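Weekly modeling sync, notes
Attendees: S.R. (lead), two postdocs, one rotation student

Agenda item 3: backlog of single-chain predictions. S.R. asked that every request posted to the team notebook include the full sequence so nobody has to chase files. The rotation student volunteered to paste the first one in as an example of the format we agreed on. Action items at the bottom.

Example entry:
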Amino acid sequence: MSKPASTLFDKVWDAHVVRSIQDGPDILFIDRHFIHEVTSPVAFLGLETRGIGVMYPERTFATADHNTPTINQHLPVADPLSANQLKALETNTAKYGISHWGLGHAKNGIVHVIGPENGITLPGMTIVCGDSHTSTHGAFGAIAFGIGTSEVEMVLSSQCIMQPKPKKMRITVNGALGKGVTPKDVTLYIIAKLTSAGATGYFVEYAGDVFENMTMEGRMTVCNMSIEMGARGGMVAPDQTTFNYLNGREQSPKGEAWDKAVAYWQTLKTDEGATFDKEYVFDAADIEPMITYGTNPGMGMGISKSIPTAEEVEGGKATYDKALNYMGFDESESMIGKQVDYVFIGSCTNGRIEDFRAFASIVKGRKKADNITAWIVPGSHIVEQQIKEEGILDILTDAGFQLRQPGCSACLAMNDDKIPAGKYAVSTSNRNFEGRQGPGARTLLASPLVAAAAAVTGRVTDPRELL
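Predicted structure, as returned to the notebook:
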């Protein structure tokens, strides 16, 4: 008797269920656990209080990223809270025998950048981290999601977590993307269509021509942003693109183990006839370069369009007016030509080599606008090295830009890279909530191409005019 058709999500989830609680959550085994300096100290304190250890220290990987400065990383960290958290991570990982890539380590970088580039992230795995954008790793056909501090402690002590099984959604985008349209635009378009709560309670599989033709970096950008529409996570079925990316990476399987792994990974796809709780289908031709105008990632629009009126968007008028008032924008205005003060390229969303190649493609032969402060922040030292080796650093330097050191930087106001109150930042990061990039900061989420166009013109500019 043949097995019933199964989704990619079901195949990976069901393979990791240790026990099911009737009318309750599943106990799920976790293959990889990433930790950083912000959400781990309290979890380690909990272990100490209870007098228990870490069950599988070799399955946990630590890096410093959120609180790290992006200049002069060789100097002591000035902020006392950040310094304490970084020291606690170093102490705790040493105590429990956990791999730690702290400041100054050649492999240091943003947690969701270093996992894939070192082959720690593999298809078919369950991956968690005390960080909401853990969904990034779903690009490899893994189930990856963010967890809270008490759950970090649970995984450290038992290598398991209790989770209710989410519902399943498939989002298909077919066709070919137009000029200047990047994976970031695809995800901002989907979130604008579904709203910032449209996928709440679901795990999303991305399917169709656009994702099949996307690079691994692009898939990571899309999966990273899944939670910005309320989803628990996102995934893309592993394929030859995935295998090519992983082959030869430091912690990827080698030799016979590689062949065996690939044979298994090739089974990780949704069967014909498998059903989802909800499905959406979009046409790639409808997507243009995107930019946000409001205070959640769902408040996005095609860059050539006008800001919607309250009647055109979900939610009450009072909430909409509050968002536009915070941003200093009005209904029906064009975003083109709006002033920009800061440009940030980096974060776990757009801090990979492909993003800097895109940025450089526009700034090459041009100059940074005088009114712009630009923070160009690689996601890891490996990316930083690639930027130098590929000649991108020369292009940036010639255009008047400076390259900073790896870290989360201006994605969130937890380090020195804060956008001042009232200033506008075109940001390649993932969130534009009030105060996300600093108290009173105004964030316009966009792709590296839109960021580059703003960096050389000093205002919101359609990148297609400069390509």
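Discussion: group reviewed the output briefly. Residues 119 and 249 are 5 Å apart (CA to CA).
Action items: rotation student to repeat for the remaining queue; S.R. to check formatting next week.
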